[in-house]
Amino acid sequence: QQQVKQSPQSLIVQKGGISIINCAYENTAFDYFPWYQQFPGKGPALLIAIRPDVSEKKEGRFTISFNKSAKQFSLHIMDSQPGDSATYFCAASNQAGTALIFGKGTTLSVSS
Amino acid sequence: DAGVTQSPTHLIKTRGQQVTLRCSPKSGHDTVSWYQQALGQGPQFIFQYYEEEERQRGNFPDRFSGHQFPNYSSELNVNALLLGDSALYLCASSSILAGEGNEQFFGPGTRLTVL
Questions:
Q1: What is the pLDDT of residues A100-111, one digit of tens each?
Q2: How many CB atoms lie within 10 A of CB A96?
Q3: How far apart are CA A83 and CA A13, in angstroms?
Q4: Best interface-test mutation with A: which of B54, B106, B110, B111 has the largest number of A CBs within 10 A?
């Protein structure tokens, strides 16, 4: 199975709150898991990525949590800001640089 | 340092026509991947080019073809356009030589509308 399942489809969070987006995968050959942020009319921008040899990676307000046994990974956005309002995609691939399999995306709205 | 650039920005074609989209990778990158993003969906991988050869291909028909030039830039060609080909076409570049740091950086895309 090549699918990556992403939830929720949409998310509304108050300013300063925590946004959490979840993804699940089937293919155990996947070993690279990036998150992309996309604003309307723009291409996706790489936010943060993780490999399965670590369970967590943090960059600024963005954290990826990875559960290899459950084949799940999630993005946490701490202290969410209105400027974070965008569509977020999780993805996976067999190795960095090869075909990315994307989830369907989560539209995040941060209310002020 | 210019990022990934794509042209044109927008394009309108009619069914049955052919279209060519262009991509210049980020400086220092040698690999170009193409993705199709339908409205409200995640990008879907079309194919990847490295050293002027198609390295990997997704589940797209032969109407979709590509090319990579010696300067690493790339073209995506779509023949016999269908209404369902209307989408944002994204180009992503990366560097094989970067090894584990081989992250893909996306361009702004070309919005193709087929009437």
A1: 999 999 999 999
A2: 20
A3: 12
A4: B106
